[in-house]
Amino acid sequence: MIQLKITTLSEDTSNQRGLLAEHGLSFLIEYNGYKLLFDTGQGPSVVANARALDIDLNEIDFIILSHGHYDHTGGLLSILRKTGKIPIYAHPEALKPKYKLLPPSSYRATGLPASLQELKNAGAEFKLSTGMQEIIPGLILTGEIPRVTEYETINPSHYMEDNGQYVPDPMPDDQALIAITKKGPVIIMGCAHSGVVNTVRYAAELTDSKNIYGLVGGTHLYEAEAERVAKTINELKSFEPQVLAVNHCTGIKAQMEFYKTFNDKLIYNSTGNVLQL
What we know:
Radius of gyration: 17 Å
CATH topology: Metallo-beta-lactamase, Chain A
Number of strands: 17
Helix content: 10-25%
Structural class: alpha/beta
Number of helices: 7
Order of helices and strands: EEEHEHHEEEHEEEEEEEHEHEHE
């Protein structure tokens, strides 16, 4: 029996005929008899790709939101219209309005496209928490990730509202999922706004592990300076990952650097790809 199976339902790229690609991310995760969605993509891609891949969204047990940006939450309403009533695990800040600064002084909404009432009417049962929780045995949601490294900073263009004013968003809602496997922990990330190294360190601490087996998802290194990418990779080497299926906001330059270090351990994880770990 396969303990962990991850199908990329939505990602920025696709190399399979008949599947939609869009800027965003969504994984179907099958773990020890449970099925869940980790993020919901930006728009119609998850529902369309599930249909093309003969995946029944009615079989999903619950949904996890890694953070509140539109490219990870935008498909939620259309998915709820397929699943009906379903638990959704998220940080409370993920449901609040978010913005991106467009210089010099305009702000574009980047949070949940649908209203909370629309989502609740469609069946969303939000399970909000800021802390770590083991959702099912062996499947751990990190909650808020401690920010330890000096070089992993939040993108300064991310903003939120506070008392009618736009202020920088520290993004406490960013969280990752850890799946315990026989080969070691597998870390699934949405964008790793907290920093890849901060995320991996915290996952190792939560699982009392010196090494990690897999790293899957977005790393938000596409805008990172070369020095930050180099420090990230150097730190990751000490955890000896065997699978790096990084995608979405990682960026081609960072992926090239990952490949130089990890070679064939790096997997091109586009829409429709299936990992069996």
